[in-house]
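Chapter review. Work through the record for UDP-N-acetylglucosamine 1-carboxyvinyltransferase before attempting the end-of-chapter questions.
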Amino acid sequence: MESFIIEGGHRLSGTIAPQGAKNEALEVICATLLTTEEVIIRNIPNILDVNNLIKLLQDIGVKVKKLGANDFSLQADEVKLDYLESIDFVKKCSSLRGSVLMIGPLLGRFGKATIAKPGGDKIGRRRLDTHFLGFKNLGARFVRIEDRDVYEIQADKLVGDYMLLDEASVTGTANIIMSAVMAEGTTTIYNAACEPYIQQLCHLLNAMGAKITGIASNLITIEGVTSLHGAEHRILPDMIEVGSFIGMAAMVGDGVRIKDVSIPNLGLILDTFRRLGVQIIEDEDDLIIPRQDHYVIDSFIDGTIMTISDAPWPGLTPDLISVLLVVATQAQGSVLFHQKMFESRLFFVDKLIDMGAQIILCDPHRAVVVGHDHAKKLRAGRMSSPDIRAGIALLIAALTAEGTSRIDNIAQIDRGYENIEGRLNALGAKVQRVEIC
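Structure tokens for UDP-N-acetylglucosamine 1-carboxyvinyltransferase:
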């Protein structure tokens, strides 16, 4: 097992660029299963979850060629459907949540899919009902095989239908779209997720020959086609990594430029940091975060305490609540964080409390942070990363803490952040990766 040793208190300065978006990468990589022709995807992040998904596609026969540092060619012209029934495939799927995104394209192209209950972050219940109800609306049959903990889905023919999703699930929407692009007739998805990554998936599918309208809205219409062809696609910068870098720069930065962030696709992220008092300068498509000796949390117009909560797009992404919460520990003022979408994502705050943060965990969904205004520094400590986003939040806390901290289970951070210690050390951080026996 590997750990990070972090020497806190070093100021960060310089320029850093975000990697390609993890969530988009998982979707568009799986979309390559919908055609026999070559699909070129650029700006794929070199992170554990994405690399494991690519390996899984190679296991089922997808031809993968590396064209550059982050550019790949994928061609699914010889898919080994029998491998989908194997114990080995089920085992690999169970450790990778992104594998759930294979169901839609496999069902859409081959009329069947077998997949294990996927793994991933331990952040609470993440049900798959929305996916399966969407498939059922298209005419698929499914059954859970209890002794193997797998799902088998079959369809003699998929037929378009109107559906109102019970929740605006991002992966559910992506899966239903990919299963519907070659269904007979027209599919209408209401209450669809409309995150930029869903928009990007739709743009790729249209470039492959699909007929999707309503992109960027929560009402998506898909006119089925008989086949799809090859295309080329570039992945957006990762908005969560952009937000993570803003948080680091706000707390320990001495002037940091974040390059090529795709500002129009950041939604409420910049406004939310500004509500915490963080100064952000927009320079074309770059962000400049100047040194912030003090940042003061806003209150609402009526003077009441600021509340920050997550919501489906275009609301604030839940993936940044952990980072924002850490940033608030050194602000001036108080703020209530309401994590609505996952019930276990705030449990990492006990580690911040051990480091000296003043946080009241009200319940599994709400926490009040009383900012120190840099008057009371966080203390170094030893901690373990429970999930990707809590892991990066703890890393940010360790960067600003006095003393040397250790974070265990950093494979969780590696799932979402490419060479994070090398990129931060280039800015002046002191982060060392060590092997712990």
